[in-house]
Amino acid sequence: MQHCMIVVHRKGRVVKLLVQEVATDEQPFLAGDHSFWARPEAKTVKERTFHGDRAGSIGIGQSYSTLAWIPEADGSWALPLKHERISSFETPTTKAAFQLKQVTRELGTRPLAAYDRGYGNAKFVQATEKIDADLLLRLASNRCVWGTPGTYKGRGAPCKHGHKFKFNDPQTWPVATETLEVEDPKVGRVKVMRLLWVSFPSIPKPGNGNHSRRGHQTSRT
């Protein structure tokens, strides 16, 4: 037990030491993701979980969640700030939200955190709603989000959702609130559209109680 207490204490100190290396003269850029490590032969390893990939195969092993600081616009160097196993009582989204909360608290400055499409959902947006960080989420190309429902017409049940915005159907794209076009030296012209009051279906709409502002602002590139 004494040894375990020492390990936990050192773990906290390591996180603080790593966070101190993050430059805060500009907004820090963080990147988070999770990976799966197959352990089919390690039958004595505790809390092995099943994992399916895009090819349809299923493996058994352990998953890990990582949050790293990306200090350079070019290059592959990164500083992992948190790298922890995802237990059987956690999910990649809950673990990522907890890690972001811990790192942001130690940073003392509002970072920009980027995540892949596995985190581009209502659960992750809601889990990070009270964390002092900006999110840059990649959404799946077949994702659908909804606009604000119209006013009640007096007959039948009130509408739960407004206009349906399908990413892979340009005919459904609403008019952008703001549009920004820039020339990137690597990829060429980039067009970013900002859409207000567009949300995932399980995030409350304006007028239905508290809502996450990040859940209602979508950018499309």
The CATH architecture of the largest domain is 2-Layer Sandwich
Order of helices and strands: HEEEEHEHEEEEEE
Shape: globular
Task: Write down the domain tally.
Answer: 2
Helicity range: 10-25%
Unreliable runs, pLDDT <50, ≥5 residues? 1-9, 205-217
* Text of the CATH class of the largest domain: Alpha Beta
CATH topology of the largest domain: Nucleotidyltransferase, domain 5
Distance between the termini: 52 Å
In total, the number of strands is: 11
Can you offer a commentary on this structure?
The chain has two domains: 120 residues, 2-Layer Sandwich (Nucleotidyltransferase, domain 5), CATH 3.30.420; 81 residues, no CATH class. The radius of gyration is 21 Å and the shape is globular. Strands 1, 2, 3, 4, 5 and 6 form a six-stranded mixed beta sheet that branches. A three-stranded antiparallel beta sheet has the order 9-10-11, with no helix packed on it. Strands 7-8 form a two-stranded antiparallel sheet. It is an alpha+beta fold. It is built from three helices and eleven strands.
Please specify the SSE layout and strand pairing.
Blueprint lengths: L1 H18 L9 E10 L10 E4 L5 E12 L9 E8 L5 H16 L4 E4 L6 H6 L6 E4 L6 E3 L17 E3 L11 E7 L3 E9 L20 E4 L1
Parallel strand pairs: 1-5, 5-6
Antiparallel strand pairs: 1-3, 2-3, 3-4, 7-8, 9-10, 10-11
Quick structural summary:
By secondary structure, the chain is α+β, with helices and mostly antiparallel strands. It has helices at residues 2-19, 92-107, 122-127, and strands spanning 29-38, 49-52, 58-69, 79-86, 112-115, 134-137, 144-146, 164-166, 178-184, 188-196, 217-220. A hairpin with a 3-residue loop joins β9 (178-184) and β10 (188-196).
